Amino acid sequence: MTVTSVSPTRSVLADCVRSATTAPSLHNSQPWLFRIRGSAVEVYADPGRRLQVLDTDGREQLISVGAAVFTLRLALRRAGYASDAALFPRPDDPDLVAVVTATHSAMVTSGVEALAAAIPRRHTSRWPFARTSVPADVLDHLRDAARWESTVLAEAGPAARDAILHLARSADHLLHARPGYRDEIARWTGGGLRHDGVPGWAVGPGDGLERVPIRNFAELSPLPRPSEKFEPNPTILVLATAGDRRCDWVRAGQALQRVLLAATWKGLAATPISQPVEVPAMRRLLIDPRAGLTVQMVLRIGYGTQAGRTPRRPLSDVLLPLPHASRGRAVM
Ligand SMILES: Cc1cc2nc3c(=O)[nH]c(=O)nc-3n(C[C@H](O)[C@H](O)[C@H](O)COP(=O)(O)O)c2cc1C
């Protein structure tokens, strides 16, 4: 265990920002920007990186930014600092999503070490998982991770799972009919030298059993999509929040990343299945209205092969300089 007594240096904060950029984001759009100011990091949503067709209200952008905020907090904690995250602290600047401030030194516990060790290893897997169920204590661990971030994570029972998969397949068809949907996917897919988007190797096969609707990122490819049989009864989790405002979306993103990192720690692979949450009429059907909750994410988890890490933009692309007026002040 280590304890640190001084404020984090700019270089420690920059390392934490680099960790934050490994967070998951819709189509790997990496829709975030950061500014280091003293012992705080400002986290911005980058309006130019919101997916205009799929994410009309910016909900999934803020979930993505929330995932980066959680990763930043965890990286700081791993570096020996407790932090405070103020969400939307300036009403006149709606793109400023959070200010994460290192408040005091804190013990690095074994739990923090284990969760932080998952940061570089976490990734989305779009391949078939083993036909093995996830043990109850592991599911409890994931539920606790969501609860720590003021959200609710529930496992769908067999009937709910089948209903959610059915809704997801229907939503996938509806999204394909949305003007611009396929072109938008194509814009965020590919490979080559780009530092964002979903590379070809991460796309994965279609489900030969036509049950698990993994989003097809190779829509416009001239090659036929390979097909493999996925596990017929996947473990499906639903992440929900009490409200459905912008701060709830950021909270959902923080919870999403905490759950995904806990899953990675426990040896699980995961795939978000967002199509049913992206069609408002379907989203309402994902949860019993009596629960008083709104679904933010649907996840498939299981034991599967490692897929690999997708690219990220370099720090120089996401780190904003200090505005002129603040430059004279010490930032170390
Ligand atoms: C809000 C949100 C929604 C997502 N929805 C899907 C989805 O529907 N299908 C999918 O395959 N991946 C989905 N993802 C995963 C992203 O595509 C993935 O995080 C991104 O490509 C970066 O890859 P990585 O997770 O391997 O780092 C989603 C991620 C986020 C944050």
Overview in brief:
With 332 residues, the chain is an alpha+beta fold.
Characterization of the model:
By secondary structure, this protein is of the alpha+beta class. It has two domains: 10-122 and 311-326, NADH Oxidase; 136-302, 3-Layer(aba) Sandwich (NADH Oxidase). 33% of the residues lie in helices and 17% in strands. It contains ten helices and ten strands. The protein has helices spanning 10-20, 59-78, 110-117, 136-148, 158-176, 181-187, 246-265, 275-278, 280-283, 315-318, and strands spanning 32-37, 40-45, 81-87, 96-105, 152-155, 206-207, 227-228, 235-241, 269-272, 294-302. A four-stranded antiparallel beta sheet has the order 1-2-4-3, covered by helices on one side. A four-stranded antiparallel beta sheet has the order 5-8-10-9. A hairpin with a 2-residue loop joins β1 and β2 (40-45). α2 (59-78) packs across α7 (246-265) and α4 runs antiparallel to α7 (246-265). The radius of gyration is 20 Å and the shape is globular. 45% of the residues are buried. The model is unreliable at 328-332 (pLDDT under 50). Bound molecules: flavin mononucleotide.
